[in-house]
Design a protein that fits this description.
By secondary structure, this protein is of the alpha/beta class. The protein contains 15 helices and 16 strands. The chain has a 6-stranded mixed beta sheet, sandwiched between helices. It has a 4-stranded parallel beta sheet with strand order 2-1-3-4, sandwiched between helices. Strands 14-15-13-16 form a 4-stranded antiparallel beta sheet. Belongs to the TRAFAC class OBG-HflX-like GTPase superfamily. HflX GTPase family.
């Protein structure tokens, strides 16, 4: 029951014309309009589609029947015939009725931006969890777009023992999809439960969790590979990696943290995808620190940063401590890079420069482990010694007479939780 461009590309090579509707609402930013269409081209090529041409229409609002104007439909039909195209891809999301009307009028496959992204995710998913999440998103997209017509209106049942109108093929499909969605959600709930158990164990062990987030193709996977030698797929394309990867990273102090690479974000990221990938993206919500990786060389970096902030807000993770990494700084003009500003901490860097990676891990350490303290604790207070080891990074231990001297590093949040028990034993800051 999946809708997929990939099905087209495996049988007949998809040859497409890309269509974008510029409404009064989005016309305010010409740069954004051009970038969105350019991004659609990249998405199509990533999905294995041969892009033949593009078409844009300026219209105050979308047509409820055709999405674009009726005259533009005729113009598009001529262009498709001239180019011998078999697919039309729209830059915005279409309703089920609009898709059916356009398919009937143009006699080609009609695909919208959401469907295209879903197809790429279907191609990229490798783990069982990723495959489940993609299928859930595809079925959630398909369900409200089902409509019976022609042969689909034929009745099933009837006859002896099944008198009455029977059940339409449409209702059978809907019931099947709803059942499958319920099954997938149950499987994802189990995945979520396992993730929560693992996160709980890490929390108990005092292991910090750091999540890499950012617009697709910002360099998150490259950064993970450079920092941890992770065996991850890296390619200069949209959504090169889909399944999240977690690796241990040793800080200069010797403390280990868990660094997780998450799925890249994109403007107009389908809500069904955000919902389906919530189990994975919960890693972001549970992280002690979020590394927001920005492609500094992109002319649309400000817009891309806004998109990431919106998705983080949707996930409820916008209040988390963030460190913005202005990545690919080597590809950005010096004068332009000097103007980069953001609220909160930030680093200008290249994932391929050793000194920048070293600067980054030291910054992560400073944020997570905080300032140094020297604690002098009586030997008989084993409960306090256990608390120190549980909440602090112990740098040095020395036994003097009946006391143990700990030199530790602790972040502000953890110190706030235990300060009432430890403050009387702080001998030096």
């Amino acid at each position: 029951m999946k809708i997929s461009v990939h099905e087209v590309t495996t049988e007949i090579k998809a040859r497409a014309v890309l269509v974008s509707l510029v409404t009064a609402q989005i016309k305010k930013s010409e740069a954004l309009v051009a970038y969105s269409l350019h991004e659609l081209i990249n998405l199509a090529e990533t999905a294995g589609v041969e892009v033949l041409d593009t078409m844009m229409q300026n219209k105050d609002t979308a047509d409820s029947k055709w999405f674009i104007g009726k005259g533009k439909v005729e113009e598009l039909k001529q262009l498709l015939e001239e180019l011998d195209a078999n697919t039309a891809i729209f830059d915005q999301e279409l309703s089920g009725a609009q898709v059916r009307n356009l398919e009937a009028a143009l006699d080609v496959k009609i695909i919208d931006r959401t469907q295209l992204i879903l197809d790429i995710f279907a191609q990229r998913a490798r783990t069982r969890e990723g495959i489940i999440q993609v299928e859930l998103a595809q079925l959630s997209y398909l369900l409200p777009r089902l409509s019976g017509q022609g042969k689909n209106l034929s009745r099933l049942g009837g006859g002896i023992g099944t008198r009455g109108p029977g059940e339409s093929k449409l209702e059978t499909d809907r019931r099947h999809i709803r059942n499958r969605i319920s099954e997938l959600k149950a499987q994802l709930s189990e995945v979520t439960r396992h993730r929560q158990l693992h996160r709980g164990r890490r929390k108990k062990a005092g292991v910090f969790q750091v999540a890499l987030v950012g617009y697709t193709n910002a360099g998150k996977s490259t950064l993970l590979k450079q920092l941890t030698d992770a065996d991850v797929y890296i390619e200069n394309q949209l959504f090169a990696t889909l399944d999240p990867t977690s690796r241990a990273l040793e800080l200069p102090s010797g403390k280990e943290i868990v660094l997780t690479d998450t799925v890249g974000f994109i403007q107009n990221l389908p809500h069904s995808l955000v919902a389906a990938f919530r189990a994975t993206l919960e890693e972001v919500c549970e992280a002690d620190l979020i590394l927001h990786v920005v492609n500094t060389s992109s002319e649309m970096r400000t817009e891309q940063m806004r998109v990431v902030d919106e998705v983080l807000h949707e996930l409820g993770a916008d209040g988390k401590e963030q460190l913005t990494l202005f990545n690919k700084i080597d590809l950005c003009p010096t004068a332009e890079s000097e103007l980069l500003t953001v609220a909160g901490d930030s680093i200008r860097m290249s994932a391929y420069l050793e000194e920048d990676l070293d600067k980054l891990v030291h910054k992560i350490q400073d944020i997570l482990l905080g300032h140094k303290l020297v604690l002098t604790i009586p030997v008989e207070r084993g409960d306090l010694s256990a608390l120190v080891h549980r909440t602090c990074e112990v740098i040095r231990t020395e036994v003097l007479d009946e006391k143990i001297v700990y030199e530790v590093r602790i972040n502000d949040d953890d110190y706030a939780k235990v300060s009432s028990k430890l403050r009387d034993y702080v001998s030096q800051t």
